[in-house]
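Quiz preparation item.
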């Protein structure tokens, strides 16, 4: 059962460590629970958030809601860590899909990249010439 669950007047209070579950994860899990429970977030201490849950439906136990909320936290923590780890791959796949739909975009992107490189080299050349004059 939940070790950190405190029950007060029908509400259940969970203390969630923000070092383990960032605010984005807590908000996402809370959003999913809006149809199951009333949710109130509060400061829970130095590095934690207090999540207060009150069941909307009669007969639902706070303990069950707390367990489900904990599972949802883990679900979103995994989702966001996978999203971060795969961001570059997703970016490449989207670029390939867009470029295959319109090959002219590839040429435009290459031309822009070449212009940017030339401008960068020119800036470096100007800096080098200023250093040489001193």
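Solution:
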């Amino acid at each position: 059962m939940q070790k950190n669950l405190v029950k007060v007047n029908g509400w259940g209070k969970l203390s969630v460590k923000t070092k383990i579950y960032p605010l984005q994860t807590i908000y996402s899990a809370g959003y999913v629970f809006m149809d199951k429970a009333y949710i109130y977030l509060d400061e829970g201490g130095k590095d934690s958030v207090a999540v207060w849950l009150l069941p909307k439906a009669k007969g639902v136990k706070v303990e069950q809601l707390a367990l489900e909320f904990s599972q949802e936290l883990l679900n979103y923590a995994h989702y966001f860590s996978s999203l971060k780890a795969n961001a570059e791959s997703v970016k490449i796949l989207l670029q390939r899909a867009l470029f295959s739909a319109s090959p002219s975009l590839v040429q435009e992107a290459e031309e822009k990249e070449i212009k940017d490189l030339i401008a960068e080299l020119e800036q470096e050349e100007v800096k080098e010439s200023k250093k040489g004059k001193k």
